[in-house]
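Putative acetyltransferase
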Amino acid sequence: MIRCFRPGDEHALRDIHLASITQVGPLAYNPAQVAVWASKTREPSEWLEWFHFGDRITIAFSPAGDPAAFTLLEADGHLDMLYCHPDHTRQGHASRLIEEASAFAVRSGLAMITTDASELARPVFLAAGYRQDSREDFLMDGVPIHNYAMSKDLRQVAEVQPIN
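Tokens:
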């Protein structure tokens, strides 16, 4: 099941965010990079702010009904976050969330969707039809880290049924 954020979901999103960074992140990033990335974990109150601001937060649930993954799509078409809990990786949640974000963006009249994908998320975005525009090397609190600027032209995306 996939649905939009509701107040009360914010603690689960924080937990997914932190668990993904600290438990999946080490597959592609070194300990210093993981530590600095984890230090940027969003607090529950920030999720409520994004929700009230109008950003689209979508959550995928496990068959048991547990929050498993989420995306945060900004109004300008930037997919700011895609995170999956380590217990629920490789189950298609990320692909379904990317598809839903694209469909929502099309319904919103956007022609392009962009993201800054981690090393681990990059293959999922490529499989979803995104192109890699560039590798972005930068410092986060003095620690060198990287991601990939990626984009997808939405003019070819077929609209799908909206979720609630």
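The chain has five helices and seven strands.
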